[in-house]
Amino acid sequence: MMTLRDINQLIPYKRLLFLLLIFAFVLQTVIISYNHYTGFIDVTGPADFFVRLSYSTILSFIASMFLAYPDLFAIRFLNKRNSWQSTLLKRIILDLVFGILIAVFAATAITLFAHAIDPYKKPLIDVLITNNLIIIVINLLLMSALEGTVFYTEIQKEKQRSEKLSQELNKIKFEVLKSQINPHFLFNSLNVLSGLIQQDQDKAQDFVDEFSYLYRYVLDSIEKPLVSLEKEIDFINAYMYLQKIRYGKSIDYSIDIPATALRCQIPPLSLQTLFENAIKHNQISESEPVKIDISVNENTLLVMNTYHPKTSGYNRKGIGQENLVKRYALLGSKTPVFRITEKKYVAELPLIDENYQNSEFD
């Protein structure tokens, strides 16, 4: 059963009342003017015209509300089963059929009710035919106005949704970019580089090459919704090369991914977010090294690291994880899962097919 809340989802209630009022006003203006100029009624002057127009508009407004409710029910029903995006001609025909059926039912019920109270002088069948024709024309006009308003409302909702998604996407891009070009990571890396230049110039050159690759990848991929898992693995190898120079044996990682999975896609810099969290939130020492393992289970990328949390640990959901969840939501994909076992922190990232495309990012 359709409720006022359902109507409000199709057309905001205030907009619906305003539409019906304007419809009733225009309809009665045309009818009264036509009847006056054809001699059916005699409008004595402007005052008489506005009096007739006022009470006729009120009556038509009330009557249109009784027609609008079933019309909107029919529109909602058709939107679910035969939308305008499917077959235009079929939808127009269905609109006409529903509009006529609703009008015939309403006109017949009102006419029979009125006849029961005060019988018509003309034959009842003639009155029924006349009233049905009038209400059919009126309801088809009303249904057209409602369809137009619903269509306009949907366009506005879609526009607002697109703007919201665009703002959310830009916010996520900014947060991801901000988190990847981390001033602490940059500062620490430059300190390491400074030491290497004095100790091992060849290794310092390798460090610079990997470091420049990291930031070139960040700048190239930040605008992309998805990148291949193979590129992410290449990036994380460069990232961990720098980290291992800094932490030595206190940190290690392994990758066990079948070649077929490398063509799958994930949001760019996803792995870096998880690796950075593992390094940032865990105690790191040679006696308790941080070990990170990457593997694949069916269509899910598993990233697991040893769990020796600092005071803050993983007790709260960080910005990096929130951004990952939002980015997957914008893709319309499954939600990443983050969980803690007795000795490990586990992140499960859905792998996305290599042919996947999403228009929200185009």
Kindly describe this structure.
The chain has helices at about 5-10, 15-35, 45-80, 90-115, 125-180, 185-200, 200-220, 230-245, 270-280, 320-330; strands at about 225-230, 250-255, 265, 290-295, 300-305, 335-340, 345-350. Strand 4 and strand 5 (about 300-305) form a beta hairpin. It is an alpha+beta fold and about 350 residues long. The protein folds into two domains: about 5-165, no CATH class; about 180-360, Heat Shock Protein 90 (2-Layer Sandwich), CATH 3.30.565. It is rod-shaped and about 110 Å long. Helices cover about 65% and strands about 10% of the residues. The protein starts with a helix and ends in a 12-residue tail after the last strand. It is built from ten helices and seven strands. A five-stranded mixed sheet has the order 2-4-5-7-6, with helices on one face. A two-stranded antiparallel sheet has the order 1-3.
